[in-house]
Design brief:
It contains 5 helices and no strands. It is mainly α. The protein starts with a helix and ends with a helix.
Length: 100
């Protein structure tokens, strides 16, 4: 009986790294990878002036939810900032082009 218990403990200890390596605890991570969380992380990065980081978050969010208007808007803002485009000038030019 003692040998059996020791064997079970030994197998459990051997299997522990495998279970810990699995993504079974991903919901416990503070940084989630759903579109809403990525959007919030992107917005926070924009507020902190981390435009390239924001663009990365928002690109991931856009891949997960390509029809979300908030994601599309903030993705456009981040893209404009990364490429040194003044966003209001871009919008004005876009609107003028639509009138012709």
């Amino acid at each position: 009986m003692t040998v059996h218990r020791n064997l079970v403990k030994f197998i459990f200890i051997l299997m522990l790294p495998i279970f810990l390596g699995c993504n079974i605890f991903s919901s416990m991570n503070s940084e989630s990878d759903d579109a809403g969380s990525l959007l919030e992380q992107g917005k926070a990065a924009l507020q902190n002036g981390e435009n390239e980081k924001a663009l990365e978050y928002l690109e991931d969010a856009k891949m997960k939810d390509p029809d979300n208007y908030d994601i599309l808007y903030f993705h456009s803002v981040a893209t404009a900032r990364v490429n040194d485009i003044e966003f209001t000038t871009f919008i004005e030019t876009f609107q003028e082009a639509g009138q012709t």
